[in-house]
Design brief:
This protein has helices at residues 4-25, 30-52, 58-84, 90-126. The protein is mainly alpha-helical. The longest helix has 37 residues, at 90-126. The radius of gyration is 17 Å and the shape is elongated.
């Protein structure tokens, strides 16, 4: 039902997030709190994509992907905060932010396709 590459890609992204948070966690204060937020949202993307693969319906599939999209946007936010607050090096974390943005774009397209599929089914069933 769904392209496995996004599942693999979000899993690899989660691994990178875990490593990044381990690096940030060595610092103190607000950095640790931000790292926990980033860890939660950054690893949740792939978990929701994986859950979507076992969806019971198109609507359930859409719901899981929309959650993954929300988590991707939250992850982008935390990465931007960490970079702009100079907690982390922009040079080191810009590729991570770029990947979060690309995953978000993929999820937007995917959710749009599923919404169209659901709408088309609804229209077909009304005739």
């Amino acid at each position: 039902m769904y392209d496995r590459s996004i599942s693999d890609r979000t899993k690899q992204f989660a691994v990178r997030i875990v490593k990044a948070c381990s690096f940030i966690d060595e610092q103190s204060g607000a950095s640790r709190t931000l790292a926990k937020q980033l860890l939660r949202s950054g690893t949740s993307i792939g978990a929701n994509v994986r859950e979507a693969q076992s969806a019971q319906s198109d609507r359930d599939f859409l719901h899981k992907l929309e959650i993954a999209l929300k988590e991707a946007r939250e992850t982008q936010y935390w990465l931007e905060i960490l970079i702009e607050a100079e907690v982390v090096s922009s040079k080191k974390f810009s590729l991570l932010l770029q990947e979060a943005n690309e995953i978000g774009k993929i999820l937007v397209v995917s959710t749009q396709k599923i919404k169209k599929k659901i709408a088309d089914k609804k229209t077909k069933n009304q005739h």
